[in-house]
Design goal:
By secondary structure, the protein is mainly alpha-helical. It has 6 helices and no strands.
Length: 210
């Protein structure tokens, strides 16, 4: 019964690279602690060397200074080791990123290959050809239903002419109506009009009258 209700152990996501990075970082932290300890001791020994000089104990002061120099060399070595550790950590972390990129590209290529297997170039060409045939067939059906004549597209000249007629009609509608009222207009004469006499005849009549 206990086996039926036992929970499955979760799969660890920690890789060997993660463990290596963790170990490198722990070593780095220990080196930094070691450096800090050396620097504290150096400060103490420097204070003691100064006290020995004040007391006239020059030999002991020299021994303390020699010890300090040795510790300086240890600090330089630990600095180099720290640099190497930091570089190693960065290289591993960058390699992990590169692995993720490669895995992503691999997955993308596999997905594309699967899609290409589902639909090849020949399939696409066949589908496009079938689509064009279906459109042409539907147009024939539409023409038959319309009485055998397809829908003709209007000519641009006809459209422009019709537009001109519409604009002309709108202009006529906008013109004001001229009122027509009963006005006293002279009647047109019914008899023949005498021709206008010439100017010399009029002058002759004037001279006779005088």
């Amino acid at each position: 019964m206990g086996g039926l209700f036992s929970k499955k152990k979760p799969v660890s996501r920690v890789t060997e690279q993660d463990k290596a990075v963790l170990k490198l970082k722990q070593t780095r932290d220990k080196l930094k602690q070691y450096q800090k300890k050396i620097m504290v001791n150096q400060e103490k020994e420097r204070t003691l060397a100064k006290q020995c000089l004040d007391q006239g104990r020059k030999d002991k002061a020299l021994r303390l200074l020699k010890k300090k120099k040795f510790q300086d060399s240890l600090l330089e070595k630990t600095d180099v080791q720290l640099d190497n550790l930091e570089k190693m950590v960065q290289d591993i972390e960058f390699a992990q990123v590169e692995i993720q990129v490669v895995e992503g590209l691999k997955g993308g290529n596999e997905a594309l290959d699967a899609l290409h297997q589902i639909m090849s170039l020949d399939d696409v060409e066949k589908i496009m050809g079938d689509t064009e045939d279906a459109i042409a067939y539907q147009r024939e059906i539409d023409d038959l239903l319309a009485g055998g004549a397809g829908v003709e597209q209007p000519d641009d000249d006809e459209l422009l002419a019709e537009l001109g007629e519409i604009l002309g009609a709108e202009v006529e509608e906008q013109l004001p109506d001229v009122p027509v009222s009963d006005m006293d207009l002279p009647e047109a004469p019914t008899h023949d009009l005498e021709p206008e006499k010439t100017k010399p005849q009029q002058e002759e009549r004037t001279m006779v009258a005088s």
